[in-house]
Amino acid sequence: MHMPPIGAGTFRLQGQTAIDSVANALDLGYRHIDTAQIYGNEAEVGTALAGSGVPRQEVFVTTKIWTEHLAGDALVPSLKESLRKLRLEQLDLTLIHWPSPGGAVPVAESMAALLEAQGLGLTRQIGVSNFTIPLMQEAIAAVGAANIATNQVELHPYLQNRRVAAFAREHGIGVTAYMPLAYGKVLTDPVIGAIAARLDATPAQVTLAWLLAQGYTAIPSSTRRENLAGNLAARELVLGADDIAAIDALDRGERLVSPDFAPDWN
């Protein structure tokens, strides 16, 4: 099963809100759900998946390994705990969420543990998140580019991460855009708003269609059913070359996610 191009993100969703968001997403036709150990909602995502009535083989589920579990002897046990919470026997994709702070655990060690998890049947695919070009080079050296499904990075009209995306594409590694709507900032952008008005679409749909046009996967999140439905409909929106160029010109290097343990960004 390939990763569907639009997924439902669950960052910051807790408790019943997380259950309801994932349940609504699945009911609306989403078949890609993204969570992470640090989100603290894997159990809620599992509850929504179990109650959805959607066959397991139809849903692409991603989780991400937190930095505390990146050591070779810790990663597999932590993934087994994630599977227990999610009520799954296998993930579709498991990512290193962030590179080990200060390089405490070498990339090669974590990637080898991920590859072991894949060999054990705990996950179908493996990948990385928040990796710079040098870190991607280390990951490739460790397990080979063919074994890295994606690099999930912050990517939206104001931070287009072009060097990282180009490097990934050059090596056959997918790019997954998190924070694709820039915490909602793009929804009031006049350039995107004008395109949306002309196409009878929403600014969110225009932004997501721009990402899809470049071959990226996007994982927006919402607690509102109407927004979830609108985001999914972006798959049907086709932007013209001029529209894409206009959004391309919005890049201003505005990074919204950069914790104190983040790597040195490209």
Which helices and strands occur, and which strands form pairs?
Layout (H helix, E strand, L loop, with lengths): L7 E2 L5 H14 L3 E3 L7 H11 L7 E6 L9 H12 L4 E6 L10 H13 L3 E7 L3 H11 L6 E5 L7 H9 L3 E5 L11 H10 L3 H11 L3 E2 L6 H8 L8 H8 L18
Parallel strand pairs: 1-2, 2-3, 3-4, 4-5, 5-6, 6-7, 7-8
Helix pairs in contact: 1-2, 1-9, 2-3, 4-5, 7-8
Protein described:
By secondary structure, the protein is an alpha/beta fold. It has a domain at 8-183 and 215-223: Alpha-Beta Barrel (TIM Barrel), CATH 3.20.20.100. Helix content is 40%, strand content 14%. It contains 10 helices and 8 strands. The protein has helices spanning 15-28, 42-52, 75-86, 107-119, 133-143, 162-170, 190-199, 203-213, 225-232, 241-248, and strands at residues 8-9, 32-34, 60-65, 91-96, 123-129, 150-154, 174-178, 217-218. It has an 8-stranded parallel beta sheet with strand order 1-2-3-4-5-6-7-8. Helix 3 (75-86) links the parallel strand 3 (60-65) and strand 4 (91-96). The longest helix is centred in the N-terminal third of the chain and has 14 residues, at 15-28. The mean pLDDT is 98.
